[in-house]
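Risk mitigation, structural track. In case the binding assays with magnesium ion fail to produce interpretable data, a predicted complex structure has been prepared as a fallback.
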Amino acid sequence: MEIFLDSFFNFQIMSEASPLLIRGLGTTALLCLVVIPLGLIGGLTVALMALSRSPWLRWGTIALIDFFRAVPPLVLLIFIYSGLPFADIELSPFTAVCVGFFLNNSAYYAEIYRAGIESVGVGQMEAARSTGLKKIQALVYVVLPQATRNVLPDLLSNTIEVVKLTSIASVVALQELLYSADMARSVTYNSSPIVMAAGIYLLILWPVVRMLSNLEHKVGK
Amino acid sequence: MDTPQPILEAQDLRKSFGTLEVLQGINFSLLPQEMVFLIGPSGSGKSTLLRCFNRLEEPTGGKIIFDGVDLMSPDVNINTMRQQIGMVFQQFNLYPHLSVTKNITLALRKVSKKDSSEADEIAREMLKRVGLEEKANAHPDELSGGQQQRVAIARAMALEPKVMLFDEPTSALDPELVGSVLQVMQKLRDSGMTMVVVSHEMRFARDAADRVAFMSEGQIVEEGEPGAIFENPQQKRTQDFVSEISR
Ligand SMILES: Nc1ncnc2c1ncn2[C@@H]1O[C@H](COP(=O)(O)OP(=O)(O)O)[C@@H](O)[C@H]1O
Ligand SMILES: [Mg+2]
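Fallback model:
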């Protein structure tokens, strides 16, 4: 029992590792601040493309969505970081992660937005168009606010997944939270920093998960 | 040249969905301040015809002339034209996320480019005309069906259209709420609004309409004054339909 506590809950080691972990948390936060908005914007754009009247654009977009949803994000990331240099495209770990997440997130957010837009009856678009609004105005002022509201729980839930998924950035040596924790672990030969990282994720995500649960409850009614 | 010019005209108007020809060469003309009822069995193409008038549906052939302008011409700005052709839908189609006032002012602000205070003033005026001033800040889901439809009428009226199109405006309403909507339409009619109404409210048609057109299978089979169509229809199909709905 003592050995267990010593290797997983060693507060001495945790406090020594904390500056490193806090720096890692900063990188994770920065990563989230970049990839979440990028994914939301990319996803909305892609969703609108997937609902376009032009069949080429529509099917092309849907094929891309399917592709990026089917490729495991880890594989995608390694390909971008280690594969692209063979095509003379070399990206920093941070940029590589942002590109990978942009492609992956846009596809997921796009599917959510698409479902949201389709959940708004066609009558809304028609009513708006009948008063002279352009299609884009009808989308912005009438359809998208309702669409977003209808899929808010899914958007939030996907965002939680994204935050958790940023830990895969550790494979390209980006010093985010998990990478920092693992570094501390290998230096101290002790797993407590990993437990500490898990605790930090939990601390940050738990309120969001709670909020989501409340929201789902409300929308479900 | 004494005869007044039609405000809205359809010439040999055609619309197909795939191989199904829903409008088979419609000729129709509407004079200023006229109120015309469009009746006919379900699926005969009434909604499609109405929706072609503001090009919510793209005709596959023929012409629509609105106020002297060929609506099918490529250099027509359909959005400006649509402001002059109000439309009221069976399901009201109010924007559920916006207040009653915002429902009315959206197009005023975004298309007519009026500032908020002017748009709000117009909304207030329109709500007064449909008897719902006190609902200015309510949301659509707080209103009865009849009230929602009156707001929808106010939304269309706010743009000062030259013609208003009504697609079964009372069919989705509980019977006790129909009267309030018809009353508003009667008032509009009295104010000289030009209207095309798809509706089977026979009594209202008889009282208010200048003309009734009977549609069947994508054609206007017969048209005339309400008395003539309802009491003395000439065509077999009209007779069958009228006796059907009079029962
Ligand atoms: N978007 C559409 N696609 C295919 N068929 C349609 C569409 N809209 C209407 N129709 C068909 O056109 C015919 C006429 O419909 P509609 O104009 O709604 O008739 P009404 O309003 O007189 O009941 C019907 O057979 C209907 O099924
Ligand atoms: Mg209809």
